[in-house]
Write a structure and sequence with these properties.
Layout: E1 24-28, E2 31-34, E3 39-40, H1 47-57, E4 70-76, H2 82-94, E5 100-107, H3 113-120, H4 127-136, E6 143-149, E7 152-158, H5 161-167, E8 172-177, H6 191-200, E9 201-209, H7 214-222, E10 226-231, E11 238-244, E12 258-260, H8 264-275, E13 281-283, E14 299-301, H9 311-330, E15 333-341, H10 345-357, E16 366-368, H11 370-377, E17 387-396, H12 398-405, E18 410-412, E19 416-422, E20 425-430, E21 435-439, E22 442-444, H13 450-453, E23 459-468, E24 477-480, E25 482-487, E26 490-494, E27 498-500, H14 510-524, E28 534-542, E29 549-554, E30 557-561, H15 567-583, H16 591-597
The protein binds S-adenosylmethionine.
């Protein structure tokens, strides 16, 4: 296993697969061991005591986080998560509710939830915390995964140490160096690693580690750390501690943020501010936020699965899992489970490759043949092909979800016509030129009206949906060309795709309704009657290459747009990303992904 990984992201994309698995052995008194590295994950002399002495105390904790609004720990080697749980436990006992801890960890061989359960069962005092961690666990999935546990955010880079450190966007206050022994795993202790640690360090950053190896001491010193030897833990005679002096970074100015647009993009940004105790102003012309597709009575949260391993492909996996976690607590869920049926043999081949790559674990995605698909759907499917089944994918009520995410924001029901900037202050104006809000942190998420306020290279498609009662309700939602959602009142089908110009929206037409119904009737042999169906059409914003726009555009101006038909899946993580940018908190997106979503103005 060691040495198989690439030091940097390869230039030409490789197939998107699961990360390499750890080859665990539990035969040494239940202490997990890596067979390929021939080393243990935590001390046989007491894993928790080691975490306390070698990492927490060595980094001056809990004293050093006492006066910090935000404290950031960087760990190299997440393994079983024991260090994280020990930190969480100490944080719970010592931090105030308005403080925020970011724990960022890098792990190339992520464990399965089952492995975590087995290893962490040895620590009954951490049972509640490990249960929460395992419930939120992303599984063996590449990418950068952020999880929130109260006022702690855990960010896991499921990646080799080198690209992860190179692409991490965070400033660290305490480092836990917990790779396997330097002699057995020199990759985790290279000059490259120490140099990047230094460039990511906040002023006064401290380092804790179990080792006293000479080349580690020399490497840290060369990178600018001041290193001391301390008495070792357990059987180890000595260990190292270090600290770093850096330039202090100016704190960002955070006044009341203003968000233009109350669809899922604006709602997600609002939600992540609210979680940090900041109440934004949300401006949207629609009462009850029935904005664009977020005003539809049903919508899907589905993964986007690419065959090739690109930064954005990993991001799509993380974004999907992040959205599921958010909606479990704050979404209005109508149904769980979505079938994506192949429409031809070419698509079958593509789906088989996706299954083989296992970019999502079996519990998240599996191949189903025609017969199983019919059972899951609860009705006849006329095309005799199989497809992919996503048991955790969601059918949501976007309207109710958006309302739940934005409580208790200050809402202003106004159509914004213009924004101006003067002396770092952004002013938001209505159609009469009247100023309706001012801020140093303005977020533009106004969907199809984006070009009223800024220039971006975007496109617009109008999509019509229909919904109504059906004698037979599907047991799960389905995509087969068009989609059909298992919906409270019966069934919701859609959506048409018509390219429109800026400011245009195709009014719902009987022809689109008939097309929507016909494709469903052809798929299922059912006869839905167009007369009893309601209809709604809205405009989606897309981009040339179908990637979203998420960026800090100018000082104090942030844009979230181009989410196409994937707003419910993309917005939660992109919203958190922009909130972190504004607050200068560690980013949940690596730098490569940030670059892909930072478009030049059109
Ligand atoms: N902190 C962990 C805990 O609390 O269980 C134990 C970490 S264990 C000693 C070392 C970890 O480093 C392993 O989980 C291993 O998979 C990871 N690792 C080894 N080589 C790596 C590499 N090149 N990049 C990233 N992680 C690596």
């Amino acid at each position: 296993m060691a040495g198989v990984l690439h030091k940097a992201m390869p230039n030409s994309p490789k197939p998107l697969t699961a990360p390499l698995a750890p080859d665990l052995d539990f035969s040494r008194n239940g202490v997990p061991t890596s067979q390929s590295f021939d080393d243990i994950y935590f001390s046989v002399d007491g894993g928790l005591e080691e975490a306390d002495a070698v990492f927490l105390k060595a980094c001056g904790l809990p004293e050093r986080w006492k006066d910090k609004a935000v404290f950031v720990i960087g760990e190299l080697g997440f393994g079983s998560g024991l260090n994280f749980l020990a930190t969480w436990d100490l944080w719970k006992k010592t931090a105030k509710p308005d403080q925020h801890l970011h724990f960022i960890s890098i792990e190339a061989y992520p464990w399965s939830a089952g492995g975590l359960q087995k290893a962490l069962a040895h620590f009954p005092s951490l049972k509640d915390l490990s249960t929460e961690l395992i419930a939120a666990w992303p599984g063996r999935v590449k990418g950068v995964h952020r999880m929130h546990f109260g006022n702690i955010s855990l960010t896991l880079f499921h990646s080799d140490i080198h690209p992860a450190l190179e692409n991490m966007d965070a400033r660290i206050d305490a480092w836990f160096l917990d790779g396997f022994s330097p002699a057995k795993n020199p990759d985790m202790w290279s000059d490259f690693v120490f140099g990047h640690m230094a460039s990511h360090s906040n002023d006064g950053a401290m380092v804790g580690t179990f080792t006293a190896a000479g080349f580690v001491r020399r490497g840290l010193t060369k990178a600018g750390f001041t290193v001391t030897k301390q008495e070792g833990f357990g059987r180890k005679r000595e260990r190292l501690e270090a600290f770093y002096t850096a330039q202090t970074m100016p704190k960002p100015v955070m006044d009341t943020p203003v968000i233009i647009g109350g669809g899922i993009a604006g709602a997600s940004i609002a939600h992540w501010f609210l979680r940090r105790g900041i109440t934004p102003i949300l401006i949207d012309p629609h009462k009850h936020l029935k904005t664009a597709a977020s005003g539809n009575p049903g919508g899907l949260v589905m993964p986007r699965l690419d065959l090739q391993d690109r930064p954005e492909s990993r991001f799509f996996l993380s974004a999907y899992l992040y959205a599921l976690r958010l909606y479990e607590s704050h979404g209005h869920i109508l149904k769980k489970g979505v079938l994506h049926m192949a429409m031809g043999h070419k698509e079958c081949d593509r789906f088989q490759k996706i299954i083989k790559g296992a970019a999502l674990p079996a519990g998240q995605m599996r191949w189903v043949d025609h017969e199983e698909a019919q059972k899951l759907f609860g009705s006849t499917l006329t095309k005799k092909l199989g497809g992919l089944y996503f048991p955790c994918a969601l059918t949501l009520s976007p309207i109710k979800t958006v309302l739940s995410l934005t409580k208790p924001c200050t809402h202003l029901n106004v159509q914004v016509s213009k924004i101006t900037k003067n002396n770092n202050i952004w002013t938001v104006l209505d159609k009469d030129g009247k100023a309706i809000a001012q801020t140093q942190n303005l977020f533009i998420c106004n969907g199809a009206n984006i070009l009223d306020l800024i220039h971006e290279d975007v496109r617009f498609t109008s999509g019509q949906i229909n919904w109504g009662a059906s004698a037979k309700k599907p047991k799960c939602s389905i995509i087969a060309g068009n989609y059909a959602l298992a919906f409270e009142e019966g069934i919701l089908i859609g959506a048409s795709h018509t390219h429109v110009g800026a400011g245009e929206n195709n009014a719902s037409s009987l022809k689109n309704t008939q097309d929507n119904l016909q494709s469903y009737n052809a798929l299922t042999n059912m006869e839905l009657n167009a007369q009893s169906f309601q209809t709604r059409s809205s405009v989606r914003v897309t981009t040339k290459d179908t990637l979203p726009i998420a960026k800090k555009s100018k000082d104090g101006l942030y844009i979230l747009s181009g989410l196409g038909s994937r707003g419910l899946m993309l917005a939660p993580l992109l919203g958190e990303y922009l909130v972190c940018k504004a607050l200068a908190e560690p980013s949940p997106l690596c730098k490569q992904t940030q670059k892909r979503f930072h478009r030049k103005e059109g």
